[in-house]
Queue: 4 jobs
Job 1
Amino acid sequence: MNTIHNLGYKIINIFWRILFAMTLYFAWTSPNIILGDNSTFGTSTTWLTTYAIIIIIALIVSIIVFPKVKNSFSFIFLRKQYITAPLFFLLIIILQILFVYYVHPVSGFDAGMLHYAAVNPKHVLEPNVAAYYSLNRNNLPITLLMRWIIVQTGYSSWIFFDYITLILVDLSAILNILCVALIRRKALGTAIYMHCAWLLFFPSIIMPYTDAWSLPLVSLFILCYCIMIKKNLHFIFKTLAAILFGLTIICAYFIKPSAIIPVIAMILIELLSLTVRKEHFSILRLVQIVILLSIISGSALSTYKITGNAIDEQRYIKIQAWRSIPAIHFMSMGVYGDGGYDANQALEMAVLPTKKQKTEYSKKMLFRRLKQLGAFGYLKFIVKKQSNNTADGTFGWLKEGHFFRENQKPTTKTISGKLKNFIYLYGNNIADFRFMAQAWWICILSIIALGYENWKFRDFLKLSLVGGFIFLLLFEGGRSRYIIQYLPVILLLATTSFAPAVARARRIADWARRK
């Protein structure tokens, strides 16, 4: 049994090291991190980025050189972190609210279609709307949820759904922090700081779509997992967590199916842990595991049946189920161009009348491309696609077609215009945003790389991310927007890796000084 355990972890670590090393390398070499003129985007960072870099360098040097500065910094941000960190989190929330208030443009891609269909029953009678949902049935659940929210609250504006997205994203952060409180309480302050930094460079709160809406669900089922594996918690809490776990994974599946990949990682890690003989594994423990698994299964099956029936029986949007796009279409698109959306294949999916014809066409395109690439060519393509999937710290911001409907060249005379300049395609500060977001992404990935340690929960997080990487390599990817759904995993990895990363960095620095 130990052989199975060791082999399993060896395979996980091989995939992890290869895929994560590529992600780290591509993040460090991303054009987003270019300071000054950027020929790739035709933009340039401004004095704002330059001043930010100077201030950060000056602060780091001051902490190293001046003991008083170091002691003050340590007192405020470390010894008083349980006061300082929540205040920072509160400040970030205020900034988010102001950001949404001043910046809430309507999107023109899928997010825009979801909102358009949800706000008015007359819209769903339009042929293009019915055709969209017939082809993209996966977006039906979130549209029905948005419609339910509109009916219950009476509000339907885009800014209203931006605020809902803001709440969901922040809820994900809070749930992640609760996970850290359970599994590594000493890292609680670090967790809050880490999530504050993420939220500061995450403008997707103004994009009400499955990427952001799936985040609290992923965070919640990870929290439930943490509760169930916590040894000293009362069994009643684990029972409640099991009920919520089963419900949440099904809700996540309906909102964004690929978001449940961490659940598969949980199962595999738990199965591997069972292959190692445990001295204190009692009959009572075995009974508890069976009870929890039964509760999870019952909760999940019930939720799936109720939700599935509600979607199948809905009458809000009349769809033609036989026109839906088969899964193999996304595999076919995933081997062309950048490994992402292919307009020509998408058009064929709309033209071909039956699901069988769509499937046959996608198979033909997939096998044709694989034959054309060959083994070496496909390997080369996969390496490039991993870069496209994971290198961009803005998470594919502005890379969807018709990202915003309004003019992409904002004014600089109003507060709204000044903020839009950071996130609009032709904004004066778009390069500043790209640089800062990429710097944050590089820091997160570097912390994870340095903070390696043997720990089952970390192994689960690693395997979750490996699963996400492989999924995006096999299916439609091509931009890092699809990584958003795995941000709870990445943020938890970075948070729990921070202390060992700092310790390892100090050892490396000491070694370098001795040399």
Note: The longest helix spans residues 355-390.
Job 2
Amino acid sequence: MASLLQLLPILCLHWLIININISFISSNQIPKLQPYVVYMGRSSSSSSSTTSNGNSSREEVEIAKLAHLQLLSSIIPSEESERINLIHHYNHAFKGFSAMLTDKEASALSENDEVVSVFPDPHLQLHTTRSWDFLEPQQPTTYNFHKYNLSSTDVIIAIIDTGIWPESQSFKDIGLGEIPSKWKGVCMESPDFKKSNCNRKLIGARYYHTPSAAASNSTLKTSGGTPRDPIGHGTHVAGTAAGARVRNVSYYGLGRGIARGGSPSARIASYKACSEDGCSGSTILKAMDDAIKDGVDIISISIGMSSIFQEDFLSDPIAIGAFHAEQMGVMVVCSAGNDGPDSSTVVNTAPWIFTVAASTIDRDFQSTVLLGNGKTFQGNGIHFSNLSRSKKTYPLAFGKDVAARLTPPSEAKSCYPGSLDPEKVEGKIIVCIGNDPTVPRKIRKLVVEDANAKGLILVNEYEKGVPFDSGTFAFAQVDNRVGSQIINYINSTKNPTATILPTVDIPKHKPAPVIAYFSSRGPGQLTENIIKPDITAPGVAIIAAVVPIDKEGIVPIGQKPPKYATRSGTSMACPHVTGAAAFIRSVHHQWSSSMIKSALMTTATVYDNLGKPMRNNTGKYANPHDMGVGEISPVKALDPGLLFETRTKDYLNFLCYYGYSGKIIRSISNVNFNCPNKSSEKLISNINYPSISITNLDRRRGVRIIRRRVTNVGSPNATYIAKVDAPSGLLVKVLPHKIDFTDTIKTVSFKVAFYTKNKEDTSTAYKFGSVTWFDASHSVRMVFAVSFL
């Protein structure tokens, strides 16, 4: 008996371990649920099976929903029937749904013959009026925006973003005509958003239920449960694209002028698919399907996948939605991403998407540093502190000299989190070195501010040209040259002092435009045989409508929350192109999306306001992987002379060349189509795109010939002559060198031959150049990029 008593604790311990292990194994065997998108190709509604207004009938939608629920029930166990629910259902431009599934269930669905692709619902990122005045002087003097007195147009722009703040003056409908009859959308209500918030400018507003971020069960949550914008990103984007003209706008006195969108007469429909945390891919897909069904002309999306984890074209919700939008005559404009200046960071790279990079305009925001010895240095940045109203100076210290105990000086001089001693920092202006791009300026500012400093002077070469808004905390950013002089001053005197003067705006700043450091660069990861980004537009310190939030540290003492403010990002560049495209469509109603895209690309400028080639943030000449074809010239694009029209067949051939099967392509397209007998990725270079990209040109195997066709939209009788601008080591010939158009000959094909004369050169780097077609009054420029084996 004693021995059993002695063994009892051991037996109990074994029992406990066994049960813990069993419990651990059982808990790990519980399948994890997460939202998936099930894409099933084209919808019957996208071709012939529609009602008279072009929308699916209610009966068709219900039948499709039932079919998808039945499909779900075939793979979800009967004892879990409560999970047979659709998060989103797609049935207009394309068909499919999103639902909470296990990995095993998703895999089973992917084997279904009706399914094109199944992928986890991705988490996408937000890419966040002087700009329009800056673009206008670049136009020929015979053109002017105001020549086209478009008090009201039928062009409808869908803004898929964080919602909208309807009270902004930018969305007033004064002078606009009746809502276009083609509009079939809605103005959804909520406790803080009424139907009366919509008008003849803001004609529609939707919001969506989205999958739970935790993805631990089948519950849903809403993005605020209202069309209203809680953060201002969508409002800023909408105002930039199509905001009404609003006089005497400024950001607390900075950048004063008229705020307006690129197409002030266009209509806006807002689709709230995002929150502060980002965007659900399945919700964006639903918003795109709704926008197409609602009758919009252009969809603007300042959102994208992570450049690190890019999916193929049939697992990317924006690429899927944009493909079907293009087939139904709706243009999709997207931001290129904010992961620059590294190469191969551009996103939204499908050829049917118009992809936009970001550049500066000719306005800078200057915050001057005044040292105790009387010397001044021009800094960059926006702040609204009362630090220097009396030009009083404050103690000045270098970060490494006020380091926290046991903190390496290298971390303190860069003002890393936790690196500063608040007792040493309090009451001082701190100098930090900020050339490590992994720590944002906002973080360094918070580190210094939380340590009770009076202000921050950031020595930062990396992010120059993009002014940081530090709210009510004094801030100035200087380059390395100025930074070294300020640090020398600190080391040369016992009691160094300084102040940061109030921010002022500097008009007519030169050079401009310059490609922004954050703007994502090409070539594209998914294919290098299409140049991406396509084009550049203003995206730095753009003033437009925002949500007036009264937030401490943002609103100056005694002031009201701002109704207009600056934002930077390719998010801001994208709506510039959207507005320009809407402007062109309002004049050329019959032009297709690809024709508008071609007009903007072939008329873009590559020169700054000094008359020199555009540069990037490092001071080097910008190339097509930085900026695409160049900066938009909207009015010039109204009369481009020639157009490269990319048709549905081009896009289908692209998919064949990329490697998708004919069966998949037929399931997603609305035309009867078979892939060419020979398909390879290098043939992508031959689709009729307004630019050319060739990868791995073999130096020893002769010539690569690229084909293009152009349509004359200028004078019926015109003769164009080609001019080639080729880099050294690359020979480029155009055949024929001259093309003639007449009343009966409107479309002509030509070839461009590429080969190298230096077969011993071992460099594989890209070379860039252009082919320009000239007649008496037009220049039609097509850029090219070539890499070598």
Note: Confidence is low (pLDDT under 50) at residues 1-28, 48-54, 138-146, 213-224.
Job 3
Amino acid sequence: MKNQLLLYFQAFSIWFKSLIRESANNIISIIFIGFLYLALWHFPQTVDLLLILNQTETFLLEVPLYFSLLSISAFIIWNIPKYFYYHNYKDISIRNLIGFIPNQHYKFQDRSESASYSYTTRIHMRKTLPRILGILLLAISALSILNAMELFGLENTYTKFLDPTSMLLLVIFLLLLLSEPRLYTLLKNFLNKIANTTIVFFCISIGLMILIISLGTLNTQAEKDLGKLFLANCALTLLFFSLSFNSYKFLKNFPKKLFYGTILVSGFLILISFFIFNFYPKWATGVNPLSIMVLSLLSLFMICFILILVGKKIRLPLLSLITILCIFSSRFFTDNSDHYQLEIKKTTVDRASLDTYIYHWLKSRKDDILNTDNKFPIIMVSSEGGGSRAGLWSFLTHSYLYEKSEGAYFDRNLLSLTGASGGSVGNAMFFAEARNASISNRKADFKIQSDIENANLSYKASIIYKDNYLSAALLSLLGRDLFKEVTSLFNFKNRGQLLEDQWIRAHGQFFSDEKGNLILSKEFLSFYKGVISKNSKTSEAKIPPLLLINTTHTQTGNYNIISPVRYAHLRSLEGMNDFIDTVQSSYPNGSIDLSTAMRINASFPFVTPVGEVRKKDGMNKTTSDQYADAGYYDNIGGRVSKGIEEVLIEVLRDSFPELIEKVKIKHVLITNSEERKITKTSSQLTAPLTTLQNVRYGHTREIMERLGDDYIVELKPTEIIPSTDLEDSVSKRKKEEKIKPVLPLGRYLSKIAIRSMEARLDTIKSDLDLILK
């Protein structure tokens, strides 16, 4: 018994060493799979995209493209490592690469039954590990859909009985069993006993393909269809499993040159597409972000393949050398690069102090306040972050209140707009047009008059947020910006500037100034030009609301406010740094564009780069201040609103005591519905990380409670009818035909999700009306 156990341990040791040794030959595949796993399981913006794959109007194009890229990735992972063996790469040249059959190493294998277990395991591992990794890639993709449904609390048959993490571990365990030669032989002999195995193999393959296609045609864009998407991805995984482990049957009737040539050509075509997209990133906006992500990762994989193959031909570890060189060069260029520097603009606007501004804001409305029958509402808005859904929800809320009050909401009652990330972007998009209209002495129009293409949408904000704001950023992150980071060659717009351009273009479809200029590209303080002069006199027009855009200073973690007023002397906002004051200490009369302010407020980790402002210290040494997403510190901007309220109360008490009883301060909180379950007790090992993960959410809720819950405008998924047929009334349709779309966190919204958000706006109109009373 003891000897038997020892033999088992020896066999396991041999198997494990073979696994590690062969993993080194598949290292780029393992890294590729690791990145895909992190993106699809742990990165919020891409996890959410899995849930809206079935919502898009071009479902029959986007899902097949995504599945095709996954399939190509799996086939490349399976077959690329064959090119790295000596008996293959020694005969490869540029001329014969396409169509070369990389099976030469099989000719020199000892197939005798007397071969040692160590040798048999090594050879078997060489054959099976690439197949296993290809299957694992597709399994991760399939189970990530299940994981995303679980994260969003979407229950169906699959989520009730299957735990995604446990299933992934089980899949890995079962696949590793196939890498053990004796177990594999037992399973193979068992299956070979079945009559007509070749016919069964082809029938199963055809059946799986029919299943994948049929599941796609049954899509109704409802949440329940996510189960079908999961099932289709599982079928794709099984189809690849069947093909890869029965390749000898498949390739018996299929030209091998064509098979390997097709795989390489597919990989090189994807690489060429990647280069083209990087030269013309605007084209990437027409492709689903998930497909762009897989395409980009696969292109980096192909670059690594080329470097490894060339390195083996010239007998140099080329990939390792270039990787080390890139690490050192990126560190060197980071300190000297101006790639992420914000563009500083000149401003002619002098900022008044906050208390002075509020004084004149009240003074310009004094008669209105005194003549109001009921209490005059003074509105301060705080908008929660949350990607495009938060931006659109904020924009929709403001649009409704503006239209309902015929402009009085902005011109009469609104004192301040603040927020974080996406919510603040929505604030800025609304403010830009409302202020532009006010300057032009006209009423802004935020509703769609007539648009056949967008017949089911009511607001211009919805069309602006239909654009794909994520694909170009993902492409640039893994492409041109990565190239710039390690080489510092050429000059082009970084992914943050590309995002600004997209916002400006989309907003400019509907809104521009009298001269036709796009208003998001205007200098931030220009919206307050002539409001308060140097001698603190106001213009005849009413003072506009304060647009306060927040950001977080990367090096210190301090909160910064991009503000049209000065506030450093006020105790209520003590400790919050003045961004423009900091900029002007190095650049006199310096400022930034409104779009740039929006971007550094909404710098989602990695997807959007932190903005940099170069400065010189007292020793004449050049450094850069870096500014990131406001949501790191306060994901709703509530602390700013609370400070504004305290200053308002002081000004009322000191200068307008007669107005105190005539006004009602209203904190409007534009939020996302997010019910988070209390996590189970953490171990001492994980507790610190759990705390860091939850502290932002807890801090935001704490601030919201301080502002009160009287005027919370909460976004919730709302049922809609998916059909675009407007002739049938809602009452005639069955309840089962309604769907409640998922609202993703990222910068990519489907039309179905947008319609759900407009439907939510309709359901809370009575609550919104109370804000104006």
Note: Residues 22-105+117-326 form one domain.
Job 4
Amino acid sequence: MAGLIFDWPAWVHGSNWVWVRRVPAAGARFWLMPLALVVGLAAGAAALRGGEWSRRRTALFLGGLVVLTPLLQIAVAAQHRTQPLSLMVISGAGFWQEGVRIDDPATFIREHTARMPTYADIHLRTQPPGWTLTYWALAQLFARAPGTADVAGRWIHRYDCAAPELLGLETAQLAAGSLRVALLLLSGLGVLPLYAIGRRFYTPAATRLGVVGFAFLPALLVFAGRFDVAYALLGLVGLWLGLRAVHDGDRASAILLAALLAGASFLSFTVLPVALLILVMMTASAWRENRAGVLRRLLWTAAGIGAAVLLLWGALWLTLDVNGLAMWRVSQAIHREYRLNYPAWFVFNLYDLAVFMGIIPFVGALGAAAVGLRRGSAGHRVAVGWAATILLLNLSATVRAETGRLWLFVMPLGLLIGLAYFAQAAGETKRGRDRLTLLFGVFLVQALVTGTLLGGRAGEPATPAPQWRLPQTMTPVDYRLGESVALRGYELEPAPDGLRLTLYWRALDFPRAEYSAFVHALDETGAIVAQSDGPPAVPMWCWVPGEVVRDERLLVAPAITTVSLGLYDPYTGVRLTVAPPVLEDRILLPVAAK
């Protein structure tokens, strides 16, 4: 934490472009960070009280964490951005812009392997077409609900309406960008399968502490809204289904698990290591089981997963001539070309994992694995399985950088194992509980420091954030122009050789066209002596309902007595109707005599 705060030594925050230290300006929202720390400490203390809870109390507790998880990510993003959700949308280029422009999905799937090396975005070059087609499907759904598409698309467009990659997109296509925001809002659902997994191996209090820690997982705070969050949730749901299939003999869970992993393999090849985690963890949890049925179900579940994957890609080969193996080979060749390397990557991978999972839980998970090598309890076997998965991933050498994002799917389980280890080791003594509270507090602080200093990766939007308040210094007026724009006030200030006029427009609705303003300076005879025509400071296509747009104009002329203004269509010259009615639909603002 000290290294990140003081930026010394440099290697403490990584050694390539992914780990970029960003110190946000100390703004009015910084109070959210100490508030988050207080909430985390209070939730941790509540988690440790009592043994078994009632179902109602447990449901309320877990439901609160489901909501808290995305709120914490938004609070961290708010340290870097006036519009926190823009962090997810602006960093969502690639799959989104390519997907919504697809004309024929079948043709796109057939040509994807050949086009992979030519895509502009690196992620498109290395992944199956699933996420790209998801954006296409979302755009089609929004197109069937034009009202919803209009609202969602224009709000998303407002985050950075000057971005060149958004030019020419229709509102339904823009609205499809909400997928990344949906991933952010759904990230808290990981609390539910994580709690269900924990209750199989750990005490109620230890499990509750683990799911509180999940809400503060540093990787979620840094990589909010990225697709890797979906794979973390996939890994937890898959592991829960696998445990039900292997230990409980639930055939429906085995079928769902196979279908889930097969379908997800069409989205990303990341599913391969996710499947590795699930299979290793099922094997570890079933190790030393005396019942032959458990091992038999384990083998059948593994075979079912493999069969489902082969069935999906075999069907794609037969129907669309898509060779999944060739696609994977192209992906790996591109990965090798662009692979980044940490110095001593084998060690740095573990260092990355510790920082983005939480150093305290990482140490606890290693401690639990060390104990598991000597003991045979189910919880310790799970720790050994988790450590074995990490070792296999590291030995594969397929990841030599970006571990904090690419290995996010192993972090929630490791965090649960590590915090449960410390919680159970603390016991019931006051000294043990005090030590546990201190360790959990250190974890929370490290999570918030990591999220704050390493988050906010997307570039700043070119469009200024919307303003909502009118200044008290303005002269108020109340004119409506057309159906969606109002003039609420103005300010007049002397300027060298003229006058500086500041207009305050308010959007009453989403403007349906791009209008220009005419601003004419008149002398005492009514003649135009200066003018400033053109669109307002923020393009009207960007405006959202309720927004106040500050529009400054400089009029250079002597003896200005009146300013005449209004809005008009630049293509037809037709002025927007003003209400209350004024002559020639032009608003007259008097200029006080000097």
Note: The mean pLDDT is 91.
